[in-house]
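Ticket opened by: R.M.
Priority: normal
Category: complex prediction / small molecule

The reporter submitted a protein together with histidyl-adenosine monophosphate and asked that the result be attached to this ticket for the collaborator who will pick it up next week. Submitted input follows.
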Amino acid sequence: MSTFAAPKGIPEYYPPESARFLAVRDTLGEAARRAGYGYIELPVFEDTALFARGVGESTDVVSKEMYTFPDQGGRSITLRPEGTAGVIRSVIEHGLDRGQLPLKLYYSGAFFRYERPQAGRYRQLQQVGVEAIGVDDPALDAEVIAVADEGYRRLGLTGHRIELTSLGDNTCRPEYRAKLQEFLRGLPLDEETRRRVELNPLRVLDDKRPEVREMVADAPLMADNLSDQAAEHYERVKEHLRDLDVPFTENPRLVRGLDYYTKTTFEFVHDGLGAQSGIGGGGRYDGLMADLGGAELSGVGFGLGLDRTMLACEVEGVRPGDQSRCDIYCVPLGEQAKRRLVALAGQLRHAGIRVEIAYGGKGLKGAMKAADRSGARYALVLGERDLTEDSAQLKDLSGGQQESIPLSSVVEKARTVLSG
Ligand code: HAM
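Result attached by the on-call engineer:
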């Protein structure tokens, strides 16, 4: 046994499962591209202060879960726990908001949170995310939600649902916060929860303990205390979602773990996953860009958890990207044949055909078994006699038909049979 193991709480994807991982990532990314989102590649670590300011000091993510360390130059560095703050930092730094608005970006990659690992909760998690910056239009909120829904549907998922609410804007939120705090201060809560009431009262509404749930059952809700403008925005979002045929349920108790949200917030929930049922989430964050030193521009986006989406696919028996890894499996019999087939495999790959070769001097029987396992449609067998005749045997692995093909026309023949 190796003395090394991957760090705790990190899912790894290797063949054949990794093909599904790529398909999930690509399908969700493709849904974003189709709606006009351009790809942005961001650093995996940033200045710690960016997340403290952007995500919020009082959140669990910042106060408990960040991988923070000094680099060799003594700067405080943090492995990104989420993508939005980094996108906004990059937009401000490079003036990307000076072009046409909304600026629509998408990204994918690994994020890091020091959480207690369990099924569906990892310390390195993967997301595909989008951010649409600079236009405060409810139709854009609906687009973002519809893009995520479309991505999940393209994967073949049907068991997810969307929870939606509005967290208000900077006119009604402070008033609501004070009202909620007043209510919560009157409850016999424990010391730590009392502290939370002062720091982040909304989070108390999300407490999972039954006794706390019971106590906050009658708490005032943001959804009932929206300003006219926020209420109007919320109504329009719902209207657009209905027009788009994207079903949702309203959950006025929906609380997100990041501080930047305003107005529309949403979560994609999959009930087949147990405790970690949030497969994706997002919302509007109209104050974030200004908070980070940029222009007063609004934003809305989502982050979809690829690891949990993989689990949802498993639960639903959906197998995206489940295809053979090659089209033609080359079987050389002897050294001379191998030289020719290695070169021919290169030509076939140049022609866009997926090719594998039986390495290691496998005999015919073993090589044909490997050809079957590879999922290839054809085997290309080259023996000593074929070589003298300048031809190879193309064997259809499903029907068993075998044909002798001149070596000079193998690429052309392969193209023809594979396109059929
Ligand atoms: P978030 O809700 O913190 O939002 O994360 C988005 C998704 O990432 C979650 O719904 C979940 O599927 C996945 N996820 C989060 N933590 C873990 C974990 N420990 N293990 C496995 N999966 C996890 C954000 O990150 C925001 N930046 C989304 C956003 C973009 N809002 C606006 N724009």
